[in-house]
Amino acid sequence: MTISPLKTAKADIPIPGEPPRFTPSTLIAAMNQTLEYAYEGALLVGEVASYKVNQGKWVFFDLKDEESSISCFMSIYQLRVPLEDGMKIVVRGVPKVTKWGKFSFTVSAIKPVGDGSIKKAFELLKKKLSDEGLFAPEKKRELPKDLTKLGVISSTGAAGYADFVKILNARWGGIHVQVAHTQVQGMDAPDQIIRALKYFNERSEVQVIAILRGGGSADDLSCFNDEELVRAIAASKIPVITGIGHEVDESLADLAADVRASTPSNAAEMLTPDREAVGYTVDMSVSRAESIIYNKIDAALERVDQPFDNIRRFIKQKIDFYHNMLFQKVKILEALNPEKVLRQGYAILSGKVSPGSVVNITTYDKEITAEVKEIHERKNVTN
Amino acid sequence: MSEKMSLTKKMEELDKKTGWFYSDDFKLEESAERYKDAMALANDIKKDLNELKNEIEVLSEDFSK
To answer: Which of A190, A34, A220, A225 minimizes the C-alpha distance to A108?
Structure first.
């Protein structure tokens, strides 16, 4: 509700010399004007208590610390993280006095703070969106193989963005990269990223959208668990790749994206081939062609030589055969040589063998003339 | 972009040229000439690879509003 300064800053009937008079309505209006002026966009940190939703539309809870408690109010449509009593959150909004004179804080945005609350909100929203099928594997699309138009959503001053550009340029070229500069942490980040997603989906021809942010604390990265942002990623007509934080960081934006890269640098690696690897492949394909030529030449030479090899082999076999035959004949002849027999101690007897006759006996080294005295038949002669 | 498309086509052409060496169409007497042809294309591709640059455009839109 906007209140005109003219209507609220003054008492209904000012009386000169006396303090200003107000009606309840004008005093409340004046107080709200002051509060809005002094505390617009104020951030309030505390623990949630007495959380409830009325009529499915209005959200009420108390935000308290050790000593005090403030009633908070917001529309369910502005509630983009699940709430539970006990969670620690930071809210943005305006303090107001209601027309019944009660003080409350009208909330426009909420963010959980502290590792415990961030994790709790993450798990609650993860279950809700998972049950709706937002993270279903069958919804995931592949990245384009021939990337020429890329949309990037990141903070151009962030280290993660610089890493991405460095790796992208080192690996590949020829890509027209359109960069939507947005915040990538804080309460305004989700809406800015949603607007950038909408821009690329409605007004560009990019083939894929990369949402990038370098490492940070759980609190820094918690904007990527915003329900509206996660839904916008899941609904994008253009495939989305996320490179948020480090390998160990998992956000709901990662789960909703078509492809999750572990870091911005990894996103660049997943989006592009490596020009050095492609160059190597080119070299290898030509080198293999060269090997084929040499192999074919060797095979052709082999075919030409083959008949001659066969003839050579045949001739050699024949020579070997005759050589063996000759060797065996020589061995037989050597065995039959009488001189060899005489060397073994045998003797040759020649002349008529009868008692009283003279015979010649030839040994290895002697010629003997001898007279035959007696002749007996040998016994036990074996054949 | 046209540079990239041209590179893609060149890569396809190189695949076709080197594929011939594996095919039944291979003829030894043609191979030297075809090899020289493939090698020239490979060198051309590597030159393209080294010269390719990305164009980075930061959009002027204000996404904070």
So the answer is: A190
Whole-number pLDDT of residue A7:
46
The whole-model pTM stands at 0.71
Residue A268 has pLDDT above 80, yes or no: yes
pLDDT category at A14 given cuts 50, 70, 90 is: low
Q: Is residue A13 part of a domain?
A: yes
Q: With cut-offs at 50, 70 and 90, classify the pLDDT of residue A145.
A: confident
A206 touches chain B (CB under 8 A): no
Q: Tell whether A275 is within 8 A of chain B (Cβ).
A: yes
Give how many domains chain A has, as a whole number: 4
Of A172, A180, A283, the CB nearest to B61: A180
Q: How far is A288 from chain B (nearest CA, A)?
A: 8
Q: What are the distances in angstroms from CA A154 to CA A80, A181, A218, A310, A332? A: 21, 5, 18, 75, 102
- Residues in B closer than 8 angstroms to A290, CB to CB, are 35
Same domain as A343, residue A325: no
Q: Report d(CA A124, CA A146) in Å as an integer.
A: 38
- Whether residue A60 is predicted with pLDDT greater than 90 in this model: the reply is yes
CA distance B3 to chain A (A): 6
- The encoded tokens of residue A368 equal 């003997």
Chain B touched by A192 (CB under 8 Å): yes
Q: Which domain holds residue A222?
A: 137-275
Instruction: Please give the residue of chain B at the shortest CA–CA distance from A165.
Output: B56
